[in-house]
Design brief:
single chain; 0% strand; 2 helices
């Protein structure tokens, strides 16, 4: 090392510039070196973990925001799906109701047709019975008329007419009656 020479100068007048602020170069240099050392220590042991923690926190917040946006999109999609499902359910319900109405109309038509057939059958049966009863009544009337004609013939002729002649007279009367 080289020799250093220190010179002391004493001034008795007012101080100016840096001396007025009581600044010394050596104090400034020591404080600067101390600041750099503290800064490097803080950078090494404090800033990196704090920066890392802040970066992790930012990632967590970003992930939360992304998840929130994703959930919002999923909610919108689910709302749209719900609306679609409701619409389809309404259409299906309308189809079911329409099918029920159609089947009810068909059942009503079938029951009306069945009822009409039963009524027609009952009317045909009633007409057949009426016709049968009318035929029986005609035959009964014919027998009664034959009996009356036979009695009238006996009364006119004054004697009992034999069955052969009686049958001929009755046939003759019936034939003349059927022609009219």
């Amino acid at each position: 090392m080289g020799p250093f020479i220190f010179a002391a100068v004493e001034e008795t007048g007012p101080k100016s510039g840096a001396e007025a602020l009581s600044l010394s170069f050596s104090a400034f240099l020591i404080q600067t070196i101390s600041f750099v050392i503290v800064f490097l220590i803080l950078k090494r042991f404090a800033f990196k973990p704090i920066t890392k923690m802040l970066e992790e926190r930012r990632h967590v917040i970003d992930d939360g925001v992304k998840m929130g946006l994703q959930l919002e999109q999923e909610r919108i999609a689910l709302d749209a799906e719900i609306v679609k499902i409701k619409r389809e359910a309404h259409h299906e319900a309308d189809k079911i109701i329409a099918t029920g109405h159609k089947e009810a109309r068909e059942v009503m038509r079938d029951s009306e047709k069945t009822t009409a057939r039963k009524v027609e059958t009952m009317l045909a049966d009633a007409e057949a019975r009426i016709e049968e009863e009318s035929e029986q009544a005609r035959k009964g009337l014919e027998k009664d008329i034959i009996g009356l004609v036979s009695e009238a013939t006996e009364a006119l002729v004054g004697e009992k007419v034999d069955p052969k002649k009686d049958a001929e007279l009755i046939d003759k009367i019936l034939k003349s009656r059927n022609r009219k």
